[in-house]
Amino acid sequence: MSEVDIFRDLSPQEMDAMAAAAPMSTYSPGELLYSPVKPVEKLFILKSGRVRIFRVSEDGRALTTAMISPGTIFGEMVLLGQSMHDNYAEAIEDSVVCEMDKQDVHRFLLADPRIAARITQILGRRLAEMERRLSDSVFKSASQRVATTLMKLAGPKSTGLPSRHPQVSLTHEQVAALAGTSRETATKILGELADQGLIRLGRGKIALLSPRGLAEAAGE
Predict the structure, then answer these.
(1) Alpha helices in the chain (DSSP H)
(2) Where are the extended beta strands (E) located within 8-94?
(3) Closest C-alpha among 195, 69, 67 to residue 143
(4) What is the spatial distance between Cα 169 and Cα 72, in angstroms, rounded to a whole number?
(5) How many other β-carbons are positioned within 10 Å of the β-carbon of residue 197?
(6) What is the pLDDT of residues 188-212, one digit of tens each?
(7) H or E segment at 40?
(8) Distance (Å, rounded) from C-alpha 8 to C-alpha 130?
(9) pTM for the predicted model, two decimal places
(10) Tell me: the pLDDT tens digits for 51-60?
């Protein structure tokens, strides 16, 4: 729990109490943490891995609304202005999460002004990300969305000049789901990006050979 940013200045005793109230669970890639047909009243704290939050329209189209990175929270937060009952949460790589019920959310999170303020900041960033993704789904092409997805998962350091090429661990099907397109289209776009020398495709891994060029392909 000490690796979670919102708990960064808690005492060892407070950290121990928090850890006891939020037991850890593991999820494999593709496994759902919750869904509209399997709702749970919990708040999740992602310790390692990645989780995507998405919704499915009546015609079966999926829209990713958030990508959860380690050290942040998601899930049942009705009291904080968010609900997960219309959402799916899927692990896109091996993930470890801490799970906290509503009673302990009140006791440990909302009652502490330090943590409550950081949660408010997280929710603000989550809303901004959702708005950006909605805008991308309308105004960006499928190719731009695929490039944006790779840049997002590679992290902010990917636009610099690293000694090693940043990599993301994704299948073509996962890229398609995150970018809001079909697997066939995603595979075609990834091949084109590879032909341009922007990425290198491997088994379940994609290396970003030219992050700056990829950013241009993403329209950023």
Answers:
(1) 12-21, 102-104, 113-139, 142-154, 172-179, 183-195, 211-217
(2) 24-27, 32-34, 42-48, 51-56, 62-68, 73-75, 88-91
(3) 195
(4) 20
(5) 10
(6) 999 999 999 999 998 888 999 998 8
(7) none
(8) 26
(9) 0.69
(10) 998 988 777 7
